[in-house]
Write a structure and sequence with these properties.
This protein is an alpha/beta fold. Helix content is 50%, strand content 12%. The strands form two sheets. The protein has a six-stranded parallel sheet, sandwiched between helices. It has a three-stranded mixed sheet with strand order 7-8-9, covered by helices on one side. Helix 4 packs parallel to helix 5 and helix 7 packs across helix 11.
Length: 306
């Protein structure tokens, strides 16, 4: 793999930025990498482990001379960070992000965008329930999808270059508009997280099920179903605040389905339940066939950290 960018700058040095930094090194995609984070602690860790070539204390120094700047902060911080770095961005540079919601990032960043900077929002559909600069690993994006949501009139060369960069980090690439992305993700990620959080809340509320019983018997389904409920609370608060409409739409549909199954259980309608589970099993198996999960008992997660 050959060099795609001279200097890649990360604002935020958590799970996604650190995984990108490792993946860039693995494939030699950049000559230099720089980064900064909000807290001195995170910057210290990043320096200790040599996460990027240079860690700076300010976002301004970090983006200076960069031909690619990647915003890797929680959704709620995108606008503030964009405002801070905007005067220091190089003309001709590409500015991208990895936020889980796309229209909200566009709304937050666009007002600060200087002339001559190519803004191409992005979202790698890969993650774990771990956070911080030590959580990253080079394989995180391998065979995962990355969705770019370029605005109308986006520079085609800048888009092609960023696409090559993500492919170089192991990802498959898709391009769509931001509202469509937000609806798709409400189905595939945001609502499932909300339901997992709820299920953990339900188990906690049930006084009959003691903590030890929940943990002891968790392999019966609770463990796999709620794995994602250990995800970062700041990130997920921001996802629901910024993808409100699409999430509420999907939650409404989910609730209707749940009521239909609840009624089938109450009425002893085994045919309906069987037909429903047959259909959903086929869909779930399709995910394994599409290479987006494994059928190993632990879903392959012990190895991949995913
Ligand atoms: P993370 O591990 O929690 O790291 C977040 C980084 O952002 C940290 O370096 C943090 O600095 C910095 N930060 C937090 N608040 C900030 C603020 N107000 N101003 C400046 N910097 C700030 O998060 P992550 O999992 O890498 O997520 C980063 C982005 O990727 C989010 O937008 C998320 O939606 C998106 N994403 C996440 C996943 C996932 O599964 N985790 C998957 C795809 C996309 P400190 O450490 O100093 O606090």
């Amino acid at each position: 793999m050959s060099v795609i960018y001279q200097r890649v700058a990360f604002i935020g040095l958590g799970l996604i930025a650190s995984s990108m930094a490792h993946a860039i090194r693995r494939s030699g995609l950049a000559v230099t990498t720089t980064g900064t984070a909000r807290s001195a602690d995170t910057r210290k860790v990043a320096r200790e482990i040599g996460l990027v070539d240079q860690v700076f204390d300010t976002a301004a120094e970090t983006v200076k001379g960069a031909d690619l700047v990647v915003l890797c902060v929680p959704m709620g911080a995108m606008g503030t960070v964009a405002e801070e770095i905007a005067p220091h961005l190089e003309p001709g540079a590409t500015l991208t992000d990895v936020g889980s919601v796309k229209q909200a990032v566009i709304d937050a960043v666009t007002p600060f965008l200087p002339q001559g900077v190519h803004f191409i929002p992005g979202h790698p559909l890969a993650g774990t329930e771990h956070s911080g600069p030590r959580a990253g690993f080079a394989e995180l994006f391998d065979n995962r999808w990355c969705i770019l949501t370029p605005p109308d009139g986006c520079d085609s060369q800048a888009l092609a270059r960023l696409s090559r960069f993500w492919r170089g980090m192991g990802a498959n690439l898709d391009v769509m508009d931001a509202p469509h992305h937000d609806l798709v993700l409400a189905v595939t990620s945001h609502t499932p997280h909300l339901i997992a959080y709820t299920m953990v809340g339900v188990a906690d509320d049930l006084r009959r099920v003691t903590d030890s019983e929940v943990i002891k018997y968790s392999a019966a389904g609770f463990r796999d179903f709620t794995r994602i409920a250990a995800s970062d609370p700041t990130m997920w608060r921001d996802v629901f605040l910024t993808n409100k409409d699409a999430t509420l739409e999907i939650l409404g549909r989910f609730t209707e389905e749940l009521f239909a199954l609840q009624r089938a259980i109450r009425q002893g309608d085994g045919d309906l339940l069987h037909a429903y589970f047959t259909r959903t099993r086929a869909i779930r198996r399709g995910i394994i066939e599409a290479g987006q999960d494994t059928d190993a008992p632990d879903f392959g997660r012990a190895k991949s950290k995913g």
